[in-house]
Write a structure and sequence with these properties.
Chain A: One of its GO terms (molecular function) is transmembrane transporter activity. Chain A: It comes from Actinorhabdospora filicis. Chain A: It is found in: Cell membrane. Chain A: One of its GO terms (biological process) is siderophore-iron import into cell. The complex is a heterodimer of chains A (347) and B (332). By secondary structure, chain A is an all-alpha fold. Chain A has 16 helices and no strands. Chain B is of the alpha/beta class and 332 residues long. Chain B has 2 domains: 23-179, Nitrogenase molybdenum iron protein domain (Rossmann fold), CATH 3.40.50; 194-324, 3-Layer(aba) Sandwich (Rossmann fold), CATH 3.40.50.1980. Chain B is 29% helix and 17% strand. Chain B has helices at 13-16, 61-69, 109-114, 140-144, 160-173, 178-201, 226-233, 276-282, 291-294, 309-324; strands at 38-41, 47-50, 57-60, 76-79, 98-102, 119-121, 124-125, 130-131, 151-152, 206-210, 216-220, 237-238, 251-255, 266-270, 298-301. Classes of the chains: A mainly alpha (347), B alpha/beta (332). Chain A binds chain B through residues 42-44, 63, 66-67, 69-72, 127-129, 186-187, 190, 193-194, 199, 201-202, 204, 313, 317-320, 322, and chain B through 7, 81-82, 85, 213-216, 243, 253-258, 260-261, 273, 276, 279, 283-286, 288-289.
Amino acid sequence: MVATAEKAPPGTTAVKRIGLGGGLLIALGAVAVLAFLSIALGSRSVTLQTVLDAFFDPTATSPDLTVIRDMRVPRTLLAIVVGTALGLGGTLLQGVARNPLADPGIMGINSGAALAIVGGIMLIGVQSAAGYVWFAFAGAGIATVLVYGLAATGRDGATPVKLALAGAAVTAVFGSVTSAIVLSNVDALNEMRFWQVGALSGRFMPVFWQLAPFLVIASLIALFAGRPLNTLALGDDVARALGQPVALTRTVLFALIAVLCGAATAAAGPIAFLGLMVPHLARFICGPDYRWILPYSALLGPVLLLACDIAGRVVVAPGELQVGVVIGVVGAPVFIALARFRRLVQL
Amino acid sequence: MRRRTLLSSLTALTAAALVLTGCGAKAKDDPSPAGGAWSYTAGDGKTYTADKTPKRIIAHAYAAKALMEFGIKPVGIYADGKVGADVGLKGVDFTGVTILGEEWGKIDAEKAVTLAPDLIVADWWPVEKVYSGQEEGVEDSAKKLAELADVVGPAQGDSIVGVIEGYAKLAESLGADPSVIAAARGKFEEAKTRFQAATAAKPNLTALAIGPYDNTYAIAVPKYAPELLDFQKWGLKVIDPQKPDPEFPYWESLSFENADKYQPDVLLFDDRNHPGNQEKLAAQPIAKSIKAYAAGAMTTWPAYWLHTYSDYTAQLDRLTAFIQGADENIGD
């Protein structure tokens, strides 16, 4: 499949490039529009004038403005950085593991974060999103390193099959320890019940500022991973023959994945499906070239996350649905529809 | 307690569908001794008799607390959660009492058999028509308990006082000293009078009973909270939320974006999850738009667990002091 792109006549490639570039601009526009909607719409109805006041009249204060500035803005910013990170993280993971089903859940990242959070609650008694962010981050990182370390031992290094097996094993172990703690600790159970679904609400500016630097920097670096991913996609032997240091590339990419998915999971909980779905959507639009897939993933992630979060706020007003629930409900049928185009699922 | 906890509402949805019609206690109140040495008309309307007064009692933990206040000690109890962690069981000395379960729906029937009970005591829920511990959704072993002896108890209704008096009557039939009961009742009546005086002095004071959790600002519906109905009767204006959740009308659930919908003079937090639920609210920027919160006008309310005069007296005295210091011009 990579070969088709390279064999295409130069003229077509140029046209395609312009088309794909235009598509990126459209996706960027969609992020901007959804970000605005995310600030304007919600379970509380707020007039457009009030939304404008929130930004252009810094002296004004009212409950409406509190909701916009202190609740919806951080939530929207989080949706953008988390969506980007999960989109890119999922793409890197699928590329480096050469596994179309790879997502943060399968690689043990979510279970590592969950275990670290319940551990933090049990041992130290942290009880707020801002408090357990670092635990989640560390847990996700440790899980990634563990999975990669397990997979990398042995003669062939971290092959896709060994990665998947190590991920499943680590997930099972962490999951059962987490269950054991949660079943015996009511505080942990209450926190987990909320965290485990994945949500953007209830996490405010402090959480954003804690994690944004990691998410932004890692996302920027990830955007340049297209070329090595393209080479890896040809298989280890070909990649080696083309002069790529396969093991080193994998290690660097995995470090990026650990930061992206770990920080995103710490910020919003285990958001299912996004990391799985976005790379497939991107591939559907621009084909197998990772140099295009990556920027598309970086924009489609926030588009999906924002859209689902807005939907969750509007459909059950004056209550709210957590974004993790909406993504599951919306994501599953979309993903099945995508998977029906068999071509897409091949890497 | 389980049925009234919003947190468990998702798993209790089927049972909750039955809870829509109201909460009137319909137990017939005519004790008619039918020849036996012991007789008691329970909340389910039936009169139970026995040749001799039951001595070996297994009780739901709250019922046990109610009986123990009047000097009747059960041999075994079952609770809806960890006995040590339940605010409704604080200060109860269960030494010598066998604990048969510390999780809703789970009762160790095998252990119960070895206690050879001759009576089982629990609240009767008139809407669901079932005793605590025998509800829809409990494990089969829990249902087995009802086969060991008669299950009796007073009906839950629209006042905590009714429940306590029901336990007083049961305790008396089981041999409790009437003067102990009268003493507890007397102290409570005094506390109630003080509470009424405090609310009468602040006729415009409004209160909102809340249980914030996760991403939800939950407001208790007094119609389904007998102690809140009592407070209303005794002069405290506990706000009735406008739109109780259709499938679980014990609460109205709002998102935090809408948490300033009601502006009471004081906030009452569900004391079963306090201070955790107050911290949840504190973390929300909207909290400062709730005037009572901003003014620090808040305390807890004894949520769905009161079963004894001594607890009620203590809680009323605490609330009376709070009301005396409250400002009735904070909210709208």
